[in-house]
Amino acid sequence: MRVPKDFKLVKIYTGGEGEEYNYWYSDSSLIYISDAKGNASFNEQLIRQQEGAYSRKFMSDSIMLKGTNKKGNYWKEIKYKGLLYGYSNVPPDKRELYDNVMLSAKFK
How many helices (H) and strands (E) does the chain have? Predict the structure, then answer.
């Protein structure tokens, strides 16, 4: 995945349950990648607000969920097999950039 520069990387190791990488930006937007089992994502509460989305997330091997938060900023979460990745709190003028980042994800 080709993430934009000028981020602060926070790595979270969950003691054998997986890893999470959070790329924080100065405008409070975030890109995240996680293979941690059972951990909630940054968009968890927003997903729960969409009717049926939370159960579809767990019933599907691959799914994409997206929307806006109360500030009008965008979020997106993609589940691909055991991997969760997405973005959160992205201003409207940067949405296309962050969507392209999601499209740049490559899997081995």
Answer: 3, 6
Q: Which two tokens stand for residue 79?
A: 């589940």
The domain total for the chain is 1
Q: Is residue 56 part of a domain?
A: yes
Q: Which of 28, 10, 42 lies closest to 73, judged by CA?
A: 28
Contacts of 21 (CB under 8 A, 6+ apart): 9, 10, 11, 12, 32, 33, 34
Pairing of strands 30-34, 74-80: unpaired
Q: Provide the residue range defining the domain that includes 41.
A: 8-103
pTM value? 0.83
- Does residue 77 sit within a domain? yes
Percentage of the residues of the chain whose pLDDT score is greater than 90:
50
- Is 55 among the domain residues? yes
Confidence band, pLDDT 50/70/90 cuts, at residue 73? very high
